[in-house]
Amino acid sequence: MSAEATNPEARPDVRPELRRRGRTRIDLRRLGRAALLGPTPRDRLPDAIGHVAEAHRAHHPDADLSLLRRAYVLAESSHRGQMRKSGEPYITHPLAVTLILAELGAETTTLTASLLHDTVEDTDVTLDQVRAEFGDEVCFIVDGVTKVEKIDYGAAAEPETFRKMLVATGNDVRVMSIKLADRLHNMRTLGVMRPEKQARIAKVTRDVLIPLAERLGVQALKTELEDLVFAILHPEEYERTRALIAAHAGEADPLPAIADSVRAVLRDAGIAAEVQVRPRHFVSVHRVARKRGELRGSDFGRILVLVGENADCYGVLGELHTCFTPVVSEFKDFIAAPKFNLYQSLHTAVATPDGYVAEVIVRTRQMHRVAEAGVVALGNPYATGAAAADGDEERVDPTRPGWLARLLDWQRSAPDPDAFWSGLRAELAQDREITVFRVDGGRLGLPAGATCIDAAYAQYGETAHGCIGARVNGRLASLGTRLSDGDTVQPLLAQDSSSGPAAEWLEHAKTQAARIAISSWLRDHPDGATPTTTPARAPLSVVGARGGGGNAVADLPDATVRLAGCCTPVPPDEVAGFVVRGGAVTVHRVECASVAQMRSLGRTSVAVHWRATADCRVTLTAESFGRAHLLADLTEAIARQGVEVVSATVEPPVEQRVRHTYTLQLPDASVLPALMRAMRDVPGVYDVARA
User: Fold this and answer.
1) What is the pLDDT of residues 417-471, one digit of tens each?
2) Alpha-carbon distance 678 to 674, whole Å?
3) Which of 3, 6, 343, 626 suits 319 as a labelling partner, its CA being 20 to 30 A distant?
């Protein structure tokens, strides 16, 4: 962008901020007339953007090109006299950026903003003028890609520019698509820069812009950016890789023959498909070489199969796996489970009779367009009807995918530009995303490796400071438990609003939102950073005098009957009895794990039934948050149900959680559901279950 613009007419003795304040309003009509050089009629596009118009019409045959003509007229006249460091007229840069986007299929508004993307930053054109001439949409996009002033931000200008751009991208992803195309053209012409500046720009591209291109699904830009960065930051490895590719070019390539075999198989199966050989780019070859060691001819490319419908993709897969030997470990289905960047395809690998292994990608033509151009291929995602009718906005509408929503959330809390810059790089380094579900049916998008702590802060924000645990798929779990794709997570919050996170949480937090919130709380509460540890003490037990088998009767004369403590059966549970040492009969619920163990040990099975009397004994476990008088309140709730406490055990608190275990004598088994509800209603109790 402006880093490569020079204006020979600018006065070096005038400070930039004074020149900005003293601007005069530009007459756009006068500039438009002056920019129409030569005999070009008013109703035709200037020849300079004829190739842009041709690429644009290839994707959008009915596009109105008058807006592009007016944008070019303003851009050319505004940048007139400015030169790039390479010695070319500066207008060649916005033209090249616009051509990149036009070839990807960007719609007219994006191309218009692309032509104008440096005018506000590098010329005397103002945002108000852009808005008046081209409308609010174009003005917003141009403002989003305009750098902040170094005179205002100093060394923080670059982080703050990316912060501004990121916020704008949250409202319109076309902002970032222009930035990516802008960086690609600048990287193509980076050779005129000093080596140290080349390295600095390449590192920012590697750490920030390439991950953003990956997340937006713009693979065509991402792969070329990767190769350009690879050549600058790793010149020796780049040269070795280039030598490998050059050596392969002189050898026989097995992939065309394999592609012919695939075409024949699909033709015989009656599947209309286009089969291509896609050479790998430099970085891809380098990665495969590191993974496999010595490369064979089929490792320098992949076979791409394009079909018309989703069902045809699976038909192709079936034919390939039938007629060739599949490499099972290489199969991935990104159609049924798309990547978070909109990417969909089937990936597989097949072995040929002569020993070659070829990777094959199967997708529809629409999937291919999205795989190459990502969000650019979606046109204007904010037009009426663009969002999915089924409400699955995170997959179809790229305005707020999960990763972007996370970035926008935590950037507001980043205390300074340095923290934002380092946090942005760390967040973008997470190259995979998972989806977890809340108990209310909502979804959370989190980076792979995220824990219950990350889920708590993603769902509750700073309220998660009081989180003391979680349930994952219905089971209690510690805050450091790593989540997997598809898990259901329920963070558990303490009743005490003054509680806060521990310093150890930072070891488990993966998202920047969680790390910033935890660090901020610890910084503001230095005395409370490490919660006090409750000294270990023995469980408190209250034991009654009753015991025995309750109202269970075994079909074994004079045998002593005991209800098993592991499952505490009650009427009308289906039960099984087993003779143990001393001739006693132990009664278990049939689904108890001990039943299978007893049978495997060869213990004698005894038929057991319930007496007509309704009283029974049961063991319940109550999970609760620690607080004063909790034992008394629970005992009172039990007594109000007319239930007798046989024994009670209270375990020492762990992370403010307390477990109570009660063995109770019920006057009637039918009161059990009401009893459990009454115990759950006690403040601080979040779960009651049978042992």
Assistant:
1) 777 777 778 777 776 778 888 888 787 878 888 999 999 998 888 888 888 788 8
2) 6
3) 343
C-beta separation of 440 from 454 below 8 A = no
CA distances from 150 to 3, 13, 157, 230, 615 (A): 12, 17, 5, 29, 81
* Least confidently predicted of 12-26, 94-108, 577-591: 12-26
Tokens of 61: 């045959």
Alpha helices in 616-682 (DSSP H): 630-640, 672-680
Reported as a single tens digit per residue, the pLDDT across 154-181 is 677 788 888 888 888 888 888 999 999 9
Give the tokens for residue 552.
């269970």
One-letter amino acid for residue 246 of the chain? A
Catalytic residue set: 121-122
User: b/e per residue, 341-365, with b = 16+ CB within 10 A?
Assistant: bbbbbbbbbbeeeeebbbbbbbbbe
**Are 360 and 348 spatial neighbours (Cβ–Cβ below 8 Å)?**
yes
**229 pLDDT exceeds 90?**
yes
What's the token pair of residue 5?
């613009």
Cα torsion 65, 67, 72, 77: sign: positive
Beta-bridge partners for 659:
623
Q: Which sign does the torsion angle of CA 36, 38, 43, 44 carry? A: negative
Q: Is the pLDDT of residue 32 over 70?
A: no
Residue with tokens 């403040």: 683
Cα–Cα distance list, 244 to 231, 300, 321 (Å): 15, 9, 31
What is the C-alpha to C-alpha distance for residues 625 and 654, in angstroms, rounded to an integer? 10
> How is residue 19 written in tokens?
């020149």
| Cβ–Cβ under 8 Å, residues 116 and 71 | yes
Closest CA to 408 of 172, 226, 606: 172
Residue 482: beta bridge partners?
Answer: 451
Q: CB–CB of 225/205 below 8 Å? A: yes
Give the whole-angstrom CA distance, residue 592 versus residue 605: 14
Q: Mapping DSSP to helix (H, G, I), strand (E, B) and coil, where does residue 165 land?
A: helix
CA–CA separation, 327 and 333 (whole Å): 14
- Which residues does 391 contact at the CB level (< 8 Å), separation at least 6? none
Non-local CB neighbours of 250 within 8 Å, separated by 6+ positions: none
